[in-house]
Amino acid sequence: MSLRIIVLAKQVPDTRNVGKDAMKADGTVNRSALAAIFNPEDLNALEQALRLKDQFPGSTVTLLTMGPPRAADIIREGLFRGADGGYLLTDRVFAGADTLATSYALHKAIRKIGDFDLIISGRQAIDGDTAQVGPQVAEKLNIPQITYAEEIRSVEASKITVKRRLERGIEIVEGRLPVLVTVNGSAPACRPRNAKLIQKYKYAKTTSERQADDTVSFRGYDSSDYLHLKEWSAADVNADGKQCGLSGSPTKVKKIESVVFQAKESKTLDSSDSQIETLIVELITNHTIG
Amino acid sequence: MNNLYVYLEIENGKVEDVSLELLTKGRKLADELHCQLEAVAIGYQLHSVGEQVFPYGADVLHIFDDKRLYPYTSLPHTSILVKLFQSEKPQIALMGATSIGRDLGPRVSSALCSGLTADCTALEIGDHEEKEKTYTNLLYQIRPAFGGNIVATIVNPNNRPQMATVREGVMKKEILNLGYKGKTVTHDVNQYVSDTDFVISIIDRHIESSKVNIKNAAIVVSGGYGMGSKENFSLIYDLANTLGGEVGASRAAVDAGFAEHERQIGQTGVTVRPKLYVACGISGQIQHIAGMQESAIIIAVNNDPNAPINAIADYVITGDVETVIPKMIKYYKKNSK
Ligand SMILES: Cc1cc2nc3c(=O)[nH]c(=O)nc-3n(C[C@H](O)[C@H](O)[C@H](O)COP(=O)(O)OP(=O)(O)OC[C@H]3O[C@@H](n4cnc5c(N)ncnc54)[C@H](O)[C@@H]3O)c2cc1C
After folding, report:
1. Rounded to two decimals, what is the model's pTM?
2. Please, what's the largest Cα pairwise distance for chain A?
3. Do B207 and A166 count as a contact with CB atoms less than 8 A apart?
4. ipTM of the prediction
5. Which of A96, A234, B22, B286 has the maximum number of C-beta atoms within 10 A of its C-beta?
6. Are A183 and A41 in contact (CB under 8 A)?
7. What's the CA gap between B139 and B326, in Å, rounded?
8. CB contact under 8 A, B149 and A27
9. pLDDT value of residue B190
């Protein structure tokens, strides 16, 4: 048995490391100070896919990502870790997409890729934490979903068994292929990059990357198909422009405000014994503690 | 028609707090909109749901009672909500931002092509102008947005229902009137689901009630990334135990493995309103503050005199956590009787 697996992955700003330099003086985010990374739970998803490929030789793992041209990094990263190929969905009309417009575009691309047995994605992306795209893609493809997966326990014939990790416990569920699975951060971490695969794929580029930068003289590029990363526009996947990007998004951002917290009049103390003791005594006296 | 709907999460016949909190909020919004509040119960053996939800002001309770509907699975619950919403055309639909609501909400919103905003921290009613058109009485879905000190107000001008999820503890749960009487509508489940909705089956399930009870604690001592290490984080436990409080954490502390996810306070964690909140080594980003700003008294312990948390603190202690926390413990023990 071999499986055709599609992994959905997103390039995200590394919001986990929002350090002080990530904030501008006016209190807004300095996006350029944040590294663009492979969304962490999408790496957990990739690992689940690669494990199935190990188990069922001949299986294929194909990455699909939507984003700006530089999101081609996501596909290269996946290839370095063992994926077989990938598609970058990139087009100006996708800009400003909410989760619904995103899932519309992704499902169109999946239709274009063709038949599949399994779609695996991370549970959620760290830049928005919505966890919506996976289930919405499943709905648009009219296939069932298994969210919050910690482990794909087994796949036999067309039966799949998955362990889910929920807020307050676990669930073992059984379903049929094709299905979409979203994977939790509690699942095993992704295997590291493989040195041989880095050698093989380091010159892998999309057509536009190749056009923008032909300084990397790699003679094999033109004759090596596996180095050509596929890049699709909305038209390539037959997506209806009205359902993409901002115009395909039912949710609109009405306004963005800086939060002005009611700054309180605070008492400032240092860490000296006397000041801390005074505070503790005050809190005991007014029955806040004790 | 065009009412406000709340999807009820029900575990072992008991309606979860998050749903009762949404009913409380839903009641207020429905009053403002002059519409009815309707609750949807999908599960098995739901006879006591009515007495649980009517006191919160539900006008109508829709019951879908069938053995196959409990425990929750995505497809049948989706089919029911989609069909019910197609015929009833709610203007607003709310659900918990739980592992159920976050599985169900997006699937329903995709089927109905309606917008869904995750993890709202406030819901209000207001108007909206766009392309020279005025929309009245929209649901403002308010949530902190990525990274900085910003909150975004999201609206769905054209699509219905306007859907939003809210985490447990964010809204307050308040009984409206113990004698409030709503109407129960029992639906024929077979009109809503088909056999193919049951392709996913649960073969084993262990759900525990939450061990950690920070939501209702009177004192919460929280540690952040500034605690430095898991070993140092034990100082947070020491102080919490001394004061008789619960332990909370920032997301950075949870991500670093200092504390379990259940203890995370903030937009994507628990919301708390204790009488005392002690924030140790926490910078005070909006997503964290969203979960604790209503605490009665806030003490911030931070070695950075300009940490944002200081702005909302009643007491700012500028210093190292390693020095300050042991002193707090010492002087509490010395002065308490
Ligand atoms: C979509 C989204 C959702 C999020 N949800 C949440 C959420 O629910 N809850 C949450 O908390 N965060 C959440 N975050 C993350 C949030 O933006 C911050 O990154 C996080 O709260 C920072 O945690 P921290 O304050 O512990 O760490 P830091 O920001 O790194 O702050 C550490 C603090 O410790 C101080 N410090 C360092 N060493 C010492 C010392 N020795 N003694 C005293 N002080 C010291 C530093 O001055 C600093 O102020 C979310 C982010 C996103 C993008």
Report:
1. 0.88
2. 81
3. yes
4. 0.90
5. B22
6. yes
7. 47
8. yes
9. 97
The answer to whether the Cα torsion of A29, A30, A34, A37 is positive or negative is positive
Give the number of residues written for chain B. Answer: 337
- The position carrying tokens 């690992």 is A47
Give the span between the Cα atoms of B165 and A47, in whole angstroms: 30
Instruction: Dump pLDDT digits (tens) for B44-96.
Output: 999 999 999 999 999 999 999 999 999 999 999 999 999 999 999 999 999 99
Angle between helices A40-55 and A72-81 (to 10 degrees): 40
Helices and strands in chain A, H and E counts: 7, 14
Partner-chain residue, chosen from B113, B199, B305, that has the shortest CB–CB distance to A144: B199
* Rounded distance between C-alpha atoms, residue B323 and residue B330, angstroms: 11
**Is residue B162 pLDDT above 90, yes or no?**
yes
Query: Quick one: tokens of B182?
Result: 């709503």
d(CA B258, CA B253): 5
With H, G, I as helix, E, B as strand and everything else as coil, classify residue B280.
Answer: strand
Which residues sit opposite A164 in a β-bridge?
A149, A171
- Tell me how far apart the alpha carbons of residues A47 and A40 are, in angstroms, rounded to a whole number: 11
Mean pLDDT of chain B: 94
Strand partners, B246: B220
Residues with CB under 6 A from ligand 1: A 15, 18, 129; B 146-147, 224-226, 228, 250-253, 264-269, 281-283, 285, 287-288, 291, 301-304, 307, 320-321
Tell me the three state secondary structure of residue B191.
helix
pLDDT, tens only, A131-148: 999 999 999 999 999 999
